[in-house]
């Protein structure tokens, strides 16, 4: 079962990364940092948020690395990120996620974490939820890109 779950996670991560890169590559820096309105995020905000979320849930939560996330900065209206930097951020973050998936044993995948609200989830549940979360943001990114 462990191999099946790992293969599913690998396949979904690869597809998400491919679609993110394809969408971002088709836009210029202005488009990537444009907001549809004052209450919306830019594509750059969403990419930086995905990277921060990978850090928080995968690197800190599963691998017990030091937390250096600044979630508020991910959504800053002053944020401006160049296309190449966004592409590098995606490659780096998704590679880190993939490396963790490859390294985990079945026992580690089934280990639980206590999340906000005293909810407990296994590491595999957390990883699968991350994939859902990133798919939702990919939809937002594609929608914003079509507005440009």
In short:
The protein is mainly alpha-helical. The protein is built from 7 helices and 2 strands.
Question: What does this protein look like?
Answer:
The structure is a single chain. The chain is mainly α and about 150 residues long. The chain has a single domain, classed as Four Helix Bundle (Hemerythrin (Met), subunit A) (Up-down Bundle), CATH 1.20.120.450. It is built from 7 helices and 2 strands; from the N terminus they run ααααααββα. A two-stranded antiparallel ribbon has the order 1-2. Helix 1 packs parallel to helix 7 and helix 3 packs antiparallel against helix 7.
The share of residues in extended strands comes to under 5%
Find the CATH superfamily.
dinb family like domain
CATH topology call = Four Helix Bundle (Hemerythrin (Met), subunit A)
Total E-strand runs: 2
Provide the residue-averaged pLDDT.
96
Helix share, percent: 55-70%
Strand order of the largest sheet: 1-2
Instruction: Examine the secondary-structure arrangement and name the CATH architecture.
Output: Up-down Bundle
CATH class value? Mainly Alpha
Protein name: Damage-inducible protein DinB
Q: Which terms summarize this structure?
A:
148 residues; mainly alpha; Four Helix Bundle (Hemerythrin (Met), subunit A); two-stranded antiparallel sheet
List the helices and strands and how they pair.
Blueprint: H1 2-25, H2 29-32, H3 43-62, H4 71-74, H5 83-103, H6 106-110, E1 112-114, E2 120-122, H7 123-147
Antiparallel strand pairs: 1-2
